[in-house]
Structure formats: structure tokens, C-alpha cells
């Protein structure tokens, strides 16, 4: 399964700062706000706006980004397909966490209600 390995390695070495502007563009194109994006990221990782900015400035990799995150206990409720992969079936924890974030950003951009995105009852 060389393809999955390459994906795992690529995600691990990618910097969060290189992807973050794409998240902003994606949500703003669909009339969602940066504040909502930060809310989604904080829900998943525990990083508030200040800490997020610090991580962006340090240009941390996704590996570092998720290694120090306090992943939300309800993250496992994130299901579905993103980038051609079913997130709940991904075996590499880091890849799965990065795809969780991608999925949440996608749901935000698609106009899903915040309580659904944040998996609140």
C-alpha cells in the first residue's frame, strides 16, 4: 500500500501554515467566517486563536500540530469521504486527524450548521 504511505508521509511533513490560507479561502468563498473556522479548529484540537497564530508563525508540521493537540473526544464521530478517503477507515492516526480537520472545514464551507459540525447533541 505504497500510495497510503506516501500520503501519510506527505501529510506529516506538510506545514499547517501552508494549508491554513486554503481553509480561509474555502470558507470565505461560501460566506462563512474566519471566526467560525477558528471555532471548528479549536473544537477539534483545543487550540485557541492565539495558540493557532503561534503555531502558524512557527511553521509547525501537521505531525507537530496534532502531536500537541488535545483532540476532542467526539472526533471519532466525524464520518464520511474527504479527498477520496473514508475518514473513519484511515489507519494512520495522523492522516486520520488531518482528514478530520479537512472534513470539518468542508462541512463548514458547505453551509452545515455549527452544532452539527461540532457534533453536539
From TrEMBL:
Q: Which domain of life is it from?
A: Bacteria
Q: Which InterPro entries match?
A: SP1917_dom_sf, UCP033199
Write the protein's name: DUF2200 domain-containing protein
Amino acid at each position: 500500500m505504497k500510495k497510503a504511505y506516501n500520503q501519510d508521509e506527505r501529510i506529516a511533513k506538510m506545514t499547517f501554515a501552508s494549508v491554513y490560507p486554503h481553509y480561509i479561502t474555502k470558507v470565505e468563498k461560501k460566506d462563512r467566517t474566519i471566526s467560525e473556522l477558528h471555532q471548528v479548529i479549536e473544537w477539534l484540537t483545543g487550540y485557541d486563536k492565539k495558540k493557532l497564530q503561534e503555531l502558524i508563525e512557527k511553521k509547525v508540521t501537521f505531525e507537530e500540530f496534532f502531536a500537541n493537540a488535545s483532540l476532542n473526544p467526539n472526533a471519532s464521530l466525524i464520518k464520511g469521504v474527504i479527498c477520496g478517503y473514508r475518514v473513519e477507515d484511515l489507519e494512520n492516526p495522523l492522516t486520520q486527524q488531518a482528514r478530520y480537520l479537512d472534513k470539518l472545514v468542508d462541512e463548514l464551507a458547505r453551509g452545515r450548521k455549527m452544532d452539527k459540525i461540532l457534533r453536539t447533541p
